[in-house]
Amino acid sequence: MTDKTSRILLLVYVLVQLLIFYALWPTLSEWESHWSDILIFEALFLLSTWLTQPYRKVAEPDAILDIGVIIRHAVIWGGLFMLIEFWFLANKVYFPYLEIIGLLSGSTTVLLIAVKLVKKTELKEAIKPVKRARVKLEFQLTQQINLTDVVKDLSIGKKDIKKSLSGRVVKLPENGSEVKVLPKPVKHYLNINAKLKELHERLPAGGVALISYTPEDIREQKILSIKPGLLSKLLYIFYLFWFRALPKVPYLSQVLLYASAGRWRAISRTETWGRILYTGFDMEEELDLGDGRFLIVARKQFEPMTGVKPSFYPIIQLNRVGFHGKTIKIFKFRSMYPYSEFLQEKVYEMNSLDNSGKFKDDFRITQYGKYIRKFWLDELPQMVNWLRGDIKIVGIRAMSFHYFSLYPQWYKDIYYTVKPGFVSPIFDENTASFDEIVNIEGDYLKKYRKNGLKADVTFFFETFFQIIGGVRSK
What we know:
Distance between the termini: 38 Å
Number of helices: 20
Oligomer: single chain
Low-confidence stretches: 54-67, 120-130
Shape: globular
Structural class: alpha+beta
Helix content: 40-55%
Mean pLDDT: 76
Number of strands: 12
């Protein structure tokens, strides 16, 4: 459905709601005396509509695969407006919220059930997930040269890098005899991505750039190693607020960056690598320059990414493979450094997976992220996805495109036909291999297609007892 059609349907839905509103409260003079009440009603109506998107469910009956969508619609509306109704009744003011919500929820429920009965729901042919492919540049590496022979300026800031580059050999394309050096560490540039893209444009395909940075991960580790532990935790909280949170506040971030020439910015190894990949480079090597500084040998291998926004804030949206292979945006609390989503494939190439199906030695996870992931707190915002009908309570987690590509085709064909879930299988070090994970998840999908809700209830309690038994996520 197009965005234009969705807006028209939402407008029609609003008009129907206003007609019901007028039928229950026809005296317009009373509207004027309760304009604040009406504004509250409209605000909650729009919030409920955004959460449940009932107009979309009516227009796309094939998407109505379970009664849960209808129940969620009624519960959200009824719950929100019942609270408001009680609040007004307590103040001796009558406002017919319950009657309105009863009619709206009832009429919508009847309509959805009628559509479901009249048009039998059939599974569509799976839509192959479409991932925005990176445009790989064509080039041939024809010459092998010592870095010190082709780098004109052998200093970054006040740091002489000649000794670190001594004996380092790099392959270059025929038309790229010079290696470009970013003169300052990346955190000192106000617009890092713009500077990296400028560097990208100045290099031929296959050209090499040298980029230095000081990862904040080192400072974090030093703070957390302070004794006693309570002091280190208090300092870490202060550090997160002062160096990580404040520079992310809109407008204030620009002031802080200008005032400190970028020194206020805390940039991690993950964010640095992610920005480099985001702007069209690939990392070939990382050299330790000493004093906490590192030098990345990066090659111009792709076109810069477009149409994908990096994640920065505490609540993030990530593209995932959803029902019928469609792309859905999953809400999560941040547990990884910014730009981590662009590094998943690189981390897999470097470290592969462990027995629990997680990436080995995943440096993208923050210190506090390890804690919230252990207790699945980062997954809580997915309740919004459940309310919107993107996922169900029990099921296989919604996966990233890269992680999904690791599964065999027979699994993908079944996965397309079942909505992802909020409560998913838990795997730990006792899991034998990734193949065992595939088989366990595949068995659940087959059982769900055969038994539906019964399979979900059984699996929910199996997972519950696993958690009680001490199984934890990594």
